[in-house]
Specification:
The complex is a heterodimer of chains A (about 300) and B (about 350). With about 300 residues, chain A is of the alpha/beta class. In chain A, about 30% of the residues lie in helices and about 25% in strands. The model of chain B has no long low-confidence stretch (mean pLDDT about 85). The chains are: A alpha/beta (about 300), B alpha+beta (about 350).
Chain lengths: ~300, ~350
């Protein structure tokens, strides 16, 4: 597993649509039984954001606007723009080039633009891994912008919950990675897929008997690549799925329970963007952070960020 | 630098004629697949500001004679049994056994069409990972349709460098356009279904070595469906040719050094104009069967390269450079230069 050390997070931002609906709103609209509602609440689900079927490009643009504002970087300084897409709902109708549309919209005139996908909620971490390899070999790439944007369209609103474990929220995130950024260095990225679950149906959660093993394994590998142990981790940036499971996961990793940043489970599961939302909201940290992503179809990913 | 050590393709036998693709009922069938994908496309078409009825009207008005005589298409390959992930498995199995060693270090997919993903979060990359038991690095490269292959190749050229670089990579490029997605993009081109597969290695010595790859955004194109609705300009042949010529110059080569040119089968007139400006002769040009199968979009460069490599590898000791180029419907151009290694095994390219 590659140790990275070439890129630091210079800035991060996210955008959640203004329209916020409660889990009770969803239950009323789709007729969920009380037991399911109770289970969802127990798993930390409180509300979600609804993009009202606006193109995902617009949410991505919202996150990028926030990012440019926070970082103050000139659009012309972006050398590589990657749109990391989760599933078919994240991109427009075929032949649409969302990265080229964003490049034009924001004047990233010097950026190579492309999309990386097909790893579901782990596509952002996969993109970081690819960006890292590129900056090590192509010295002219110094600033990399990775954006991601996802939604559950109204016509498939019934699949917004992930079983009883979580509730998808619409939203977008943006990361600015720089070779000259000394803080928030990405020390490692680890990912793998239990691809026998490759079909990944949206309307039911496939029983994944190896979930714990896979989740723990991918985080351990990220820690090992960064030459850290669980006890070194100051903050865990989780995905917003299955909050109760984190107690067991952290025990296995030997990370104290109070190091889990769990304030955002109530916001819903913003696909691959959860850990970035947590990175933004948590604020500065004094020690290593462990980020985690897990997608349908058996995709797992983790990263270690060292402040 | 990486080398292409084996290629294969899968092109469906079934075809649909231009007349079938441009009739008034071209976007109307009653299959379950049609209903599912129609719901998806209708939503997206609407949210991106396109009117489905306007698309149907535009298809019915398209100049069929111009498509035949100028663009060079009379029919396209159509897959109606397998989904795209299964087509990719079929093509890749022709160059790779599930238990083959050494194991793959990465799987990369290029596709533009949306297939087999409407009710699932499955993907072609994950399906191939399952087939070849690869848990680690796999991903899809997108957003540049016919140039995705060149974007992927440039990424892989970097990712395979160095001792820790990727050593054995499966690159699978495929398309399957589900109804009611319009296959006719105005009089410019007509989309067909196919998959091209490539096995790449960073151990030189056999196959076709990648000597250079380049992608470039030439102009600000509108949405490709504007080609159908008449609002998107066609690519300018002179700018495409100049980009390819500059690419060759940067690699200290000129057109006369190239044994074989493999163009995209996107539009015959455009290809002729580009080749004329570059001074490419008929003996260098590999487009003898232009238009066969239709324009294969992301799959096009690999399927056409497979045909060219197979022909060249059949020669006892192939020599010279092979130039492949492609064009994206969003205004990008891509080109790659390959050189035959001394050890080209013809059985790897059949």
């Amino acid at each position: 597993m590659p140790s990275i050390q070439s890129l630091g997070i210079q800035a991060a931002a996210y955008h959640l649509p203004a329209r916020r609906l409660s889990v009770e709103d969803w239950a009323r609209a789709y007729g969920a039984p009380t037991l399911r509602l109770d289970n969802l609440r127990q798993n930390g689900v409180v509300y979600y954001h609804d993009s009202d079927d606006c193109p995902t490009r617009e949410m991505a643009a919202g996150a990028i606007e926030n990012l440019l504002c926070k970082s103050g970087i000139s659009p012309k300084a972006i050398d590589l723009l990657i749109f990391a897409h989760t599933g078919i709902g994240a991109v427009g109708p075929p032949l649409t080039s969302i990265s080229m549309e964003l490049k034009r919209q924001f004047g990233f005139s010097n950026a190579r633009a492309l999309s990386i996908g097909q790893q579901n909620c782990v596509s952002i971490l996969t993109s970081i891994r690819i960006a890292n390899a590129l900056v090590q070999r192509e010295s002219q790439i110094r600033n990399v912008l990775i954006a991601s944007s996802d939604q559950i369209r109204r016509s498939i609103g019934h699949v917004r919950p992930i079983g009883d474990l979580a509730m998808h929220t619409d939203g977008a995130s943006a990361l600015l990675l720089s070779t000259h950024c000394d803080r928030n260095r990405i020390a490692s990225v680890s990912s793998f897929a239990e691809a026998r679950h490759h079909e990944g149906p949206l309307d039911r959660v496939e029983p994944n008997e190896t979930f714990f093993l896979s989740a723990i394994s991918v985080m351990r590998r990220a820690l090992q690549a960064a030459r850290l142990s669980g006890g070194d981790v100051r903050r865990v940036l989780p995905n917003h799925v299955n909050r109760p499971a984190w107690t067991r996961i952290l025990e296995f990793l030997r990370v104290p329970r109070d190091r889990l940043f769990d304030a955002n489970f109530e916001k819903g599961h913003a696909f691959g963007s959860d850990w970035i939302i947590n990175f933004v909201d948590h604020g500065p940290e004094s020690g290593p952070m462990l980020a985690f992503s897990n997608g349908l179809s058996g995709c797992f990913g983790a990263a270690v960020v060292v402040p | 630098m990486i080398s292409v050590v084996a290629t294969s393709s899968y092109v469906p036998r079934r075809t649909r004629s231009l007349d079938e693709l441009t009739g008034r009922d071209c976007l109307q069938t009653s299959s379950e697949e049609w209903r599912e994908s129609h719901a998806y496309f209708s939503e997206f078409i609407g949210s991106y500001g396109f009117d489905e009825h306007a698309l149907v009207d535009a298809i019915a008005r398209v100049d069929r004679r111009e498509i035949r005589d100028s663009a060079g298409f009379d029919h396209v390959a159509v897959e109606d049994e397998m989904t795209l992930p299964e087509m990719c498995v079929e093509a890749s199995k022709r160059i790779l056994d599930p238990g083959s060693t050494p194991p793959l270090s990465a799987i990369v997919v290029c596709q533009t069409s949306a297939d087999a993903q409407f009710r699932t979060n499955g993907s072609t990359a994950l399906r191939l990972q399952c087939e070849y038991n690869l848990k680690e690095l796999a991903f899809a490269v997108g957003d540049h349709d016919g140039v995705n292959f060149f974007v992927a190749l440039s990424l892989l050229a970097s990712l395979s460098e160095g001792e820790d670089g990727l050593s054995r990579i499966l690159l699978c490029c495929g398309e399957r356009w589900r109804e009611p997605f319009p296959r006719v993009l105005g009089a410019y081109t007509v989309l067909g279904d196919a998959v091209g597969s490539m096995l790449l290695s960073n151990k030189p010595g056999e196959g076709f070595r990648l000597r250079g790859v380049h992608t470039e955004s030439l102009h600000e194109a509108g949405h490709p469906w504007g080609l159908l609705l008449g609002s998107t300009p066609l690519p300018a042949a002179d700018r495409v040719a100049d980009a390819i010529g500059e690419f060759l110059r940067r690699h200290d080569r000129s057109v006369v050094d190239v044994t074989c040119v493999v163009p995209p089968h996107v539009n015959r007139r455009l290809v002729l104009q580009v080749h004329e400006r570059l001074g490419i002769t008929d003996t260098q040009d590999s487009r003898a069967s232009f238009g066969r199968h239709g324009y294969l979009c992301a799959a096009d460069p690999v399927v056409r390269l497979h045909e060219a490599f197979a022909r060249l590898a059949a020669v006892h000791s192939p020599r010279g450079y092979i130039l492949s180029w492609g064009i994206g419907l969003n205004g990008t151009v891509g080109c790659a230069l390959f050189e035959a290694d001394d050890n080209c095994r013809s059985e790897s390219f059949t």
